[in-house]
Amino acid sequence: MTTTAATSTSSGATTDLAIEVWGLHRRYGRGASAYHAVRGVDLDVRAGAVTALLGTNGAGKTSTLEVIEGLASPSEGTVRVLGLDPVADRDAVRARMGVLLQRSGFPGDLTVREVLTMWHGTLRAPMPVDDVLDLVSLGERADVRVVSLSGGEQRRLDLGCTVMGDPEVVVLDEPTTGLDVERRRDVWDLVLRLRERGRAVLFSTHHLEEVEELADHVAVMHAGQIARRGTLAEIVEGHPSTVRFATPLDATGTALDLPPLLGEVSSRGPHTTVRTHDVQAALHRLLVWADEHAVRLDDLRAETASLESVFLEIAGRTTDPTSTDTPTETTTEESR
Ligand SMILES: Nc1ncnc2c1ncn2[C@@H]1O[C@H](COP(=O)(O)OP(=O)(O)OP(=O)(O)O)[C@@H](O)[C@H]1O
């Protein structure tokens, strides 16, 4: 069965947006000591697509997801899940949304099968317990008590409960935390299967490779805001590539004058970095210049823009291995 969630807008038109967030703010506490964790987030999550909320620790991912999950009200802004308010219409939304929290609280003395059977009883049209055990590879652990499960097994049990009701919308807060590489891949497969079935999946993560593997759309969150969003290609597009090399010196140890290199050139300690939108031309100019001047370029490296370079820049760091040094010079050379 493949279904696509379609919800009605206020104008009566249908949309394939399963989750819509406009101008979301979330503050903890009141008055002068309030902490403003989410600062004007807009987000769309489509049916039949996987959306990643990628962010550093404390970026505000969980604070945002909790509002979408109906566990907290927005301080400001609007959230709609399948066209409904997840707090005011909580019962209607919960029947159609599966949620994986960062931590679950199943009683430790219940077995895996007992937990799944208990959860089964709370859902309208659940999958059989044995199917869920297979789906999350816990068949052989069915009679083990929750307290004796490893962290990864507990995570898979949580995930089993999340998908047992075959929800139209699935929200996963860091679904692969604590899982080894093999189990992480199992979760990825599960997410992709949900997408094939037309489900809308929103997950938060710190893992770049998880985003690259799974996400159709990415929202990069930092300091309570969405710093960038779009497809992976859209996010990376427009971000400069880098060329790095040990700063060439003359016999007296003075840095040689470089040719125009089609980008922003900066020197940190013994290295020079060029950030450019035309890495091939910049490299060509550099190598021709080095040949003509009989200069050897040590530690020469070229790196095209990637999700990692975008993410690290947003997080306020750089991929430059010499970045702990103090910058000594920055010039923009397009105009030369
Ligand atoms: N109940 C709370 N009271 C006060 N501050 C809070 C509360 N919950 C979260 N915060 C703060 O809000 C900010 C955002 O936290 P949140 O858990 O949403 O971030 P996150 O992106 O999910 O981080 P992580 O990846 O580490 O889970 C953090 O600075 C956090 O300390």
Which features does this protein show?
27% helix; five-stranded antiparallel sheet; binds adenosine-5'-triphosphate; 16 strands; disordered C terminus; six-stranded mixed sheet; alpha/beta; 336 residues
Q: Concise description?
A:
This protein is an alpha/beta fold and 336 residues long. The chain is built from ten helices and 16 strands.
Chart the SSEs and their pairings.
Blueprint: E1 7-8, E2 14-15, E3 17-28, E4 35-46, E5 50-55, H1 61-68, E6 76-81, H2 90-94, E7 97-100, H3 112-120, H4 129-135, H5 151-163, E8 169-173, H6 181-196, E9 200-205, H7 208-214, E10 217-222, E11 225-230, H8 232-236, E12 241-246, E13 263-268, E14 271-276, H9 279-292, E15 301-303, H10 307-314, E16 327-332
Parallel strand pairs: 5-9, 5-10, 7-8, 8-9
Antiparallel strand pairs: 1-2, 3-4, 3-6, 10-11, 12-14, 12-15, 13-14, 13-16
The chain binds adenosine-5'-triphosphate (ATP).
Q: In words, what does this structure look like?
A:
The chain is α/β, with parallel strands linked by helices and 336 residues long. The protein has a domain at 241-332. The chain has 10 helices and 16 strands. The protein has helices spanning 61-68, 90-94, 112-120, 129-135, 151-163, 181-196, 208-214, 232-236, 279-292, 307-314; strands spanning 7-8, 14-15, 17-28, 35-46, 50-55, 76-81, 97-100, 169-173, 200-205, 217-222, 225-230, 241-246, 263-268, 271-276, 301-303, 327-332. The strands form 4 sheets. Strands 7-8-9-5-10-11 form a 6-stranded mixed β-sheet, with helices on both faces. A hairpin with a 5-residue loop joins β1 (7-8) and β2. The longest helix has 16 residues, at 181-196. The protein starts with 6 loop residues before the first strand and ends with a strand. 37% of the residues are buried. Bound molecules: adenosine-5'-triphosphate. One of its GO terms (cellular component) is plasma membrane. GO terms for molecular function: ATP binding; ATP hydrolysis activity. Keywords: Antibiotic resistance, ATP-binding, Nucleotide-binding, Transport. It holds the Pfam family ABC_tran. Residues 318-330 have a biased composition (Low complexity).
